[in-house]
Amino acid sequence: MTLASAYNLPPSTTSAGPSLPAPERTKTRLLELIKRHGPQTAQDLAYKLEVSVPAARRHLCDLQEGGLIESRTERPGGRGRPQHVFALTDQGEASFPKTYSGLCVDVLRHVQHLFGQGAVMQVFDARSAEIAARLQTELSPASPLPVRVQIFVRVLCEMGFDAVLEQEGDTWLVSKRNCPNLTVARQFQELCASELTMYQTLLGVPMTRETRIACGQSTCLYRIGP
C-alpha cells in the first residue's frame, strides 16, 4: 500500500502537490512528519503544520481510524511527565515506498555469483522447507484430499496469491491470480520450481503447473490429481 492508496488518492499525493484537496494534503504531511521525526504529540504536529491543535487532532483521528497511526504514552527522553504521542503502525510504515524486492534480487545475484547457480536453489529450498514445516499441521495427510486442497487454497490467499479453486472431474485446478514475489520470480525461475515441489510435498499428490504469471500469463495455474 502507498500513501496515495491509503486514502484512494492519486499518486501525486505522496509529494503533497497542489492538486490535492487540503485535508488529504494535511494527512499526507502528518504521516511524513511522523515518519521523519518519530512519535510526535498533537501539539508538535500542529506547530509544524501551522494549523490549530483541534484541526491536527481531527486529521490524526482519521489516520488512526484508518489504521495508519496509533496513540501511545511516552516519557520524553525517558524522563518527565508522560505525554500522548502518535506513531506509525506497521500499516502506516508500509505506506511508504520500499525496495525489498530489488534488494532481494541483488542479494540473490551475489549469492549466485559467489557460490554458483545451485546456491540460489538451495536458498529457495530452505525457505520452502521452513514454510512447509509451519503448514504441515494444517495440511495433515490424514485429511481427505478435498479438505487439504481447500485448506491449501486458503493458505495461498493468506500469503497474498489470491487463489481460486475449481474442480474438473477427479482433478482440482488452482489458479493464483496474483504473485506477491513477481519481481524475484521473473529473475529466478528457481523460486517457482521450489514452490511447486513444496506444494506437491504438502498435498502428497501429483501436481503440474500449466501457466506462470512470471512468463506473462494472467495466472499461475496448477492441476492437482492423477
UniProtKB/TrEMBL annotation:
Task: Name the segments for region: Disordered.
Answer: 1-23
Which InterPro entries does the entry mention? ArsR-like_HTH, WH-like_DNA-bd_sf, WH_DNA-bd_sf
What Pfam families does its record include?
A: HTH_20
TM region positions: none
CDD domains, per the entry: HTH_ARSR (cd00090)
Q: Which Gene3D superfamilies match?
A: Winged helix-like DNA-binding domain superfamily/Winged helix DNA-binding domain (1.10.10.10)
Q: What name has this protein been given in UniProt? A: Helix-turn-helix transcriptional regulator
The organism is Deinococcus oregonensis
